[in-house]
Write a structure and sequence with these properties.
The protein has about 160 residues and is an alpha+beta fold. The protein is built from four helices and seven strands. The radius of gyration is 20 Å and the shape is elongated. This is YdbS-like PH domain-containing protein.
Length: about 160
């Protein structure tokens, strides 16, 4: 026999004061394979050796499983092939953003966004080899400002 009673759910009005939930994913991308271009070139040039080919395959898997996710509250970096490692930075802690890239990344329309924060475990988060890094940095900046406004947080420089 099935129980047709509605299960209680937590609504926005039920949230404790000062606690906010993530509601939306704003952006998500994986690290581009262009970051491994030198490894692939070396594997092709030395393909008669077995090790470079296996190492290139390992780097391919490592890069394919490296993801960045921007939500309402956090910037999350997921890494790992078999064992996942998740590092996140609270957006209200972000202090500075910068954009750079290598020549190969620029040729393929990719680059890196460097996020400086007041986070103690990872004060610098490198978003590497993502498409259109300038647009990504603007999106992160806008999301940081919205997060700070929603939480009532202001940044002070000393």
């Amino acid at each position: 026999m099935q129980d047709n009673m509605a299960h209680p759910s937590r609504h926005d009005s039920d949230e404790p004061l000062g606690e906010t939930r993530e509601r939306q994913e704003h952006w998500s991308a994986s690290e581009g394979q262009v970051a491994n271009g030198h490894v692939y070139l070396l594997a092709i040039l030395t393909c008669w050796l077995v090790f470079p080919v296996f190492y290139a395959f390992y780097r391919y898997l490592k890069t394919a499983n490296h993801r960045y996710i921007l939500t309402d509250q956090r910037l999350v970096e997921e890494t790992g092939i078999f064992v996942k490692n998740v590092e996140s930075v609270e957006l209200y802690r972000v202090k500075d953003l910068s954009v750079s890239g290598t020549l190969a990344q620029t040729v393929f329309g990719r680059g890196r966004v460097i996020v400086q924060s007041t986070d103690t475990t990872s004060p610098t988060l490198l978003i590497n080899a993502v498409p259109d890094p300038i647009a990504v940095s603007h999106l992160v900046r806008e999301t940081v400002e919205r997060c700070r406004a929603a939480r009532g947080v202001r940044a002070f420089d000393f």
